[in-house]
Amino acid sequence: MDAIRTRRSIRKYKPAPVPESVLKEVLNAARLAPSADNAQPWKMVVVRDEETKVRLAVASNGQKFIAQASLVLVVCGLPDEAFQTVGGYMSSHVIDATIALDHLTLAAHAQGLGTCWIASFKEDKVREILGIPEDVRVIALTPLGYPDETPEKSPRKNLEELVIFERYQ
Ligand SMILES: Cc1cc2nc3c(=O)[nH]c(=O)nc-3n(C[C@H](O)[C@H](O)[C@H](O)COP(=O)(O)O)c2cc1C
What CATH number does the domain containing 108 carry? Predict the structure, then answer.
């Protein structure tokens, strides 16, 4: 609960590198995430190369801070490996990749690292930069590095607005 309460989206990073052992720990948090039918239909691309990070920032509609972080993670979903009928109608790859990244962001925060979910990006451009095949979808990116800011907490709806007991209507 402490990590959940105190995590923030970080949009300013120090250049300090993320040690291998710490990176492995946060990637492992993603690995341990649950997934539909335990299919684990996702991959993460770890990008350290400076030029590639800048290109990813440009592909993320010019969100420059992304390239500031020591590394950038690109989370991909594998529709062909996913459970196909969540609720009888949808593939689980977006859900599964999302849970994995959420695990990672919390583990990163617990290690003193910052992240920021990035969903504003051009999939075709990210695909081209990283050589991601057509049958793989780009779900989200995040910078990963040491925070150079301590943002205030942002507001959340009250539980009463979010939770319904017994019947929706
Ligand atoms: C799916 C998703 C997409 C997001 N995309 C972006 C983004 O492209 N750029 C950005 O700066 N923040 C992005 N965010 C961060 C949200 O703005 C942020 O989580 C929200 O304002 C709450 O703030 P907090 O994370 O500090 O609690 C995204 C968050 C989520 C969950």
Answer: 3.40.109.10
9 lines ligand 1 (CB under 6 A): yes
Full domain range(s) for residue 47: 2-162
Distance 8 CA to ligand 1 centre (A): 9
- Mapping DSSP to helix (H, G, I), strand (E, B) and coil, where does residue 93 land? helix
Ligand 1 nearest atom to the CA of residue 61, by list position: 8
Cα–Cα distance between 116 and 38 in angstroms, integer? 26
* Ligand 1 contact via 150 beta carbon (within 6 Å): no
Report how many domains make up the chain: 1
Q: Is residue 151 part of a domain?
A: yes
pLDDT tens profile 134-152 = 999 999 999 999 999 999 9
The answer to the question of residue 169 being in a domain is: no
The reply to whether ligand 1 has any atom less than 6 angstroms from the CB of 116 is: yes
Compute the distance between CA of residue 144 and CA of residue 18 in angstroms, rounded to an integer: 8
pLDDT less than 50: residues of the chain? none
